[in-house]
Specification:
7-stranded antiparallel sheet; 3 domains; binds FE2/S2 (inorganic) cluster; Elongation Factor Tu (Ef-tu), domain 3; 285 residues; alpha/beta; globular; Rossmann fold
Length: 285
């Protein structure tokens, strides 16, 4: 360790009961990052590494906005941090930027793009929609959640989306139903999408892909499997895409959703939750 950096938190906002937003000073990451990329953070020196997609960035302020849901001990610890506290580690930008960033803007302008965001997956969708908006491209966005308390970043999204559609499974906000109902509705209403980007829980992405395959809309998903080193060495983030082994941290996190083996990805995610499961996976590989 040649240098000890401190990644100071400048803002903490509780978005819902379990979802938090933080601005963190990380000038080197803020300078380089593009939509679609992620960071791996550690709350303390010996803390667990948590991969988080970048929700927003300010090159001027040198800050990165992260959004996370409290799901276990490590994120529980993170949520107790206040403005002025810092992260021990903040590594990034990791992964490949979104495909859009590489495309010719004039070609991109001809495309009709639909984003489908589920719960905390709205965070990584936001910078992509914002980036497109800055290029003069207005994308349609569906944001869905189980209930109202899981709908986040609505105001920010409204400012950059062409049309914003909100759905909740229980009908507590927006239209009642799941995101796939909304996709079907939009297509039935005559919208012709050239590409769909779906980011959210694995199960949501699986069902979105099933539908968009039937509708013949090419679909990109952003996978957020368990990650450990984030450098392609440990194999924790292994996924199968089109029959080939890929590592989400270096080959992704975005993949062709119609080729992802979601069954396997979901099974691995479950197994990784327990020590026995991790040992089982380690023995198999
Ligand atoms: Fe270790 Fe991707 S996180 S290989």
């Amino acid at each position: 360790r040649t240098e000890h950096r401190v990644y100071k938190i400048t803002k903490v906002e509780q978005l819902t009961e379990t979802i938090y937003l933080m601005d963190v000073v990380a000038p080197r990451v803020a300078n380089k990052c593009l939509p679609g990329q992620f960071v791996i953070v550690r709350g303390s020196e010996d803390g667990e590494r948590i991969p988080l997609t970048i929700c927003d960035y300010s090159r001027e302020d040198g800050t990165i906005t992260i959004v996370f849901q409290v799901v276990g001990a490590a994120t529980e610890m993170m949520k107790n941090k206040k403005a002025g506290d810092s992260f021990a580690d903040f590594v990034g930008p990791l992964g490949c930027p979104s495909e859009f960033c590489k495309e010719d803007i004039e070609e991109l302008k001809k495309k009709k793009i639909l984003f489908v965001a589920g719960g905390v997956g709205t965070a990584p969708v936001y910078p992509q929609v914002k980036w497109l908006h800055e290029q003069g491209i207005e994308a349609d966005v569906i944001v869905g959640g189980r209930n109202k308390s899981l709908i986040i970043l609505e105001d920010k999204m409204k400012k950059v989306a062409g049309n914003l559609y909100i759905t909740t499974d229980d009908g507590s906000y927006g239209s009642k139903g799941v995101v796939t109902n909304e996709i079907q509705k939009l297509v039935d209403a005559g919208n012709k999408y050239d590409v769909c980007v779906a980011i959210g829980p694995m199960i949501m992405m699986k069902f979105v892909c099933k539908l968009t395959k039937e509708l013949e809309i090419p679909t990109v998903v952003s996978l957020n499997p368990i990650m450990v080193d984030g450098t392609g060495m440990c194999g924790a983030c292994r996924v199968t895409v089109g029959g080939e082994v890929k590592f989400a941290c270096v080959d992704g996190p975005e993949f062709d959703g119609h080729k992802v083996n979601f069954e396997e990805a979901m099974q691995r995610q479950q197994l990784y939750k327990t020590a026995e499961g991790r040992a089982f996976l380690a023995a198999k590989e």
